[in-house]
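hi! just following up on the protien thing from before. the input was this:
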Amino acid sequence: MQNATQALNAAIAHFATQPGVTQGQVDQLRSALYADPGLLTSFNNAAASGTVKSFALETSPAQQIPAGRYDMMGGVVSLPASSFASAGPTPAADLHSVLHVQAMVVEFAAKSYVDGPGPQTQVSSDMVVNLQDTLNGSPVLSTEIKRAAMTPDPADPKHRVLEAFDIVPSGSGLGGSYSPEKHTMNLPAASLQAQVPGSRVMGYNPYELSFVIGHEVQHGFNSLDAARGRSDFIHDAQAIAATRSPVHDYTLAIEKYVQSGRNDEARAEISGWNALQSRVHQENPSATLYDMYNLAPGRVDDFAHRVNGQPLSPRPNVQLNADLTMSPTSSNVAAMGHNYFDRPNSAHMPPGDTRASMNLGGVSDYPNYYARWAVATASWAEQNAPTIHGQKPQIVIDMAHAGLYEDMMERSGMNLGPSKQPVPYLDSSHVPATAHQFDHTFDGANKNKFVPSSPSAPSVAADSALHRELRNALPSETSQDRLAQIALAAKEGGIEAGRIRTMDVVGTNLMLTGVTPGTNASIDLASPPPPVDVSNNQFNALSEQQRSQVQQMHVTQQQAGPTMSMHQ
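and the predicted 3d structure came back as:
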């Protein structure tokens, strides 16, 4: 570490020899670096490796670099003169923030990445230049990036909101992402590179990237609310799973969680808009809405439109300020929740909906992207649910009311935990509710595939909990026909799995009594049993009748008191 310290001190000494640099600025730089152990370690390592050889002072008005600039080829970190205090050794707050941003850029420049099936690739100097051009080209964005680099994460105060830039594969269907666990902003490699001729993947576009980074950094500021949304759903799911009821309806809990995601994404969209507006107006102070649309049509389309050949104007639910900035008012947040978050996937586009389709990862929209995690979390909670008369409660979701699609969630990769067992549920969008199941598609043979229910699949009755209990209790030579007959007789007599009290043979009859008074069954063992399919079909019909009764009870419970829709 001594060598690293010497190398950093040499870089500071080189800064002191440059024209126009005062001793006060040198002292401020040294003080800012040594005041933060993490920052000092970062620059010590960079100096020791030779990736940072010197600091420089940027004084040219034509070269505005409010977030600083790193020359990867020369190993020089340039700092804006405006970030230094006018006199004295005490550094201004802005110098601290610029140095933190530059530490992230220097670390980013030293990274390598794998872009799809290609080999390990080193971050290029062009990618570093384009990233910094984007950060410096929008005053609003540079301010937000510096703020994120200095603000402790409310959800994890030991870390700052933004601590690193990283690469995600191009063509993944994501314009960018923010990782709250790693406090990292992830950008597709292609978004920082010149577009490859003939490729459909968009290359570097400063206006598009300004919007994306502005959007993603807001997710960092929203991280505490996002964490609360997740923890609230976990609490709700555990409470529902612990309820001693034959029906566990997760519809409202899922909608509540999706609404928290809708607010998060909507606020991020507004921040992306303001970053884009700042970039455009920095270049052209008289820029109009039409100018912004020409530079980033795919982004502006969520905020503005043209009706019947009329001039471009804000969408009816969008309120823009006179300078075209957008305030994060509750009405604007709701507007962007509709205009952006609620855009449907192309596979489920409602008739007459003129919004551009949303294809996250090529297969999903935002409600299903968020609900996929919620459904998986609910399935984990249900593993500890109490049994009711020996049976697990029935999971119920009103898929239509929540705007959910099983195929979309499974194609995005449904993670049902280490067991990877399917999760049966009733879709109460229909009357009577229809039986479905979620399948594990996060990995394995069905990775990112929709697994539809097969009409030729074995009947649930052939391996119900009651069948399994009877199979264990009866002699091993008992035929499948006889087993199915006994299970049906028990079901008809009101005896469910886990509720068998006695099982005795009296003469030629098998007598069963249940734990619940009045539940019993008698089977004549002297007569041949009906074929297994006959008994199973009757068992299925009786099970469906009971499910319908449970569903009707569920509807009655809902009608007994007021409910609140999350779609406001």
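Residues 455-461, 553-568 have pLDDT under 50 and may be disordered.
The longest helix spans residues 251-283.
cheers
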